[in-house]
Amino acid sequence: MLVSSPIELLDTRIGEKEAIKVFKDAGFEAFDMSLFRMISKEEGYYTPEDYVERAKNLRKYIDEIGIVCNQAHAPFHNGFGAEGNEWMMDRVIKSIEIAAILGAKIIVVHPIQCLNYAENAQKLFDMNVELYKSLVPYAEKFGIKIATENMWQTNNGSRTPTDSVCSRSWEFCKLIDAVNSPYIVGCLDLGHVAIMGADIPAFIKAMGPKRLQALHVHDTDLIHDSHTLPFTQKMSFAPIMEALGEIGYKGDLTFEANSIFRNYPPELYVSVARLMKDTGDYLASLINKAK
I need a labelling partner for 196 at 20 to 30 A (CA). Which of 60, 172, 210, 216 fits? Predict the structure, then answer.
């Protein structure tokens, strides 16, 4: 089991190669390639003209320093189903190719949730079955699995989290089963389950190892999508890791806890990343112990 972290946040501050080097120097054997900025139309960032060459250059760099890209994250695309769909779909497909060039085994592609879930649950479900089925040929072409993720929306009145696509285990399982392809799997965001008030170990056991093949690991105060390091807020990680071990989870342990870096100066990035790696190794040991 590899322990990895996205380079998001650090790459916007010090550049992607320097961000990857931080995690390498901290002892990480893998990193998660965050490609969110592909929809910002930022000049020079994996543009349609140079994305393959840039990805190949980055692959050469990571091979040279001895770290692998185990997982990636496609740009956000909540506007699918609205104007701009074709442009955003193009960026998602290009991100799948980039991830494959870098050697990632899985890329997370968010489900469509551009509509109010409470009023459009079935419509969103159908749109997402269509989305992931349409991505299967690209997964096959590039040799990479695509993971959908459990999401949440905001209650407009109270501003608190409320249900969205795949926020409940039965719908997460139903969506993956409906697409019915070995290339479409699940990435369980543990913090998203927590802020929805669901039983995380029960969620894990409902999904099982065939569907659940990737993780986003971070801590929350059970209200906000905090994306910070485990053991800094209110989630209980021992029973979560035990459940992963009990189902025979075979994926990696990938953090999505980059907010931990937010207030630290660059001189301390490696030290912060080293704490993250030690935390990941500890969590992985709990999973292995429960197998």
Answer: 210
CB 238, CB 286: distance < 8 Å? yes
Domain boundaries, the chain: 3-290
Please report, as a single letter, which amino acid is at residue 55: A
Rounded Cα–Cα distance for residues 168 and 151 (Å)? 9
Name the average pLDDT for the chain: 94
Q: What is the mean pLDDT of residues 199-214?
A: 98
Question: According to the 3-state scheme, what is the secondary structure of 102-125?
Answer: HCCCEEECCCCCCCCHHHHHHHHH
**Exposed / middle / buried, residue 112 (Cβ in 10 Å: 0-12, 13-18, 19+):** buried
- Token pair in block for residue 190: 């543990």
Rounded Cα distance between 175 and 130, Å, is 10
The residue type found at 13 is R
Q: For residue 123, give both structure tokens.
A: 């419509």
Whole-number Cα distances in Å, 57 to 46, 62, 187: 12, 9, 28
Give the three-state DSSP class for 234: coil
By the 10 Å C-beta count (0-12 exposed, 13-18 middle, 19+ buried), 153 is classed as middle
Helix (H), strand (E) at residue 34: strand 30-34
List the one residue out of 118, 38, 129, 37 whose CA is nearest residue 81: 129
Tokens of 128: 């997402």
**Residue whose pair of structure tokens reads 């927590």 in the numeric block:** 194
CATH annotation of 3-290: 3.20.20.150
Tokens of 177: 């089963």
Q: Are 61 and 117 in contact (CB under 8 A)?
A: no
The string of pLDDT tens digits covering residues 231-278 is 999 999 999 999 999 999 999 999 999 999 999 999 999 999 999 999
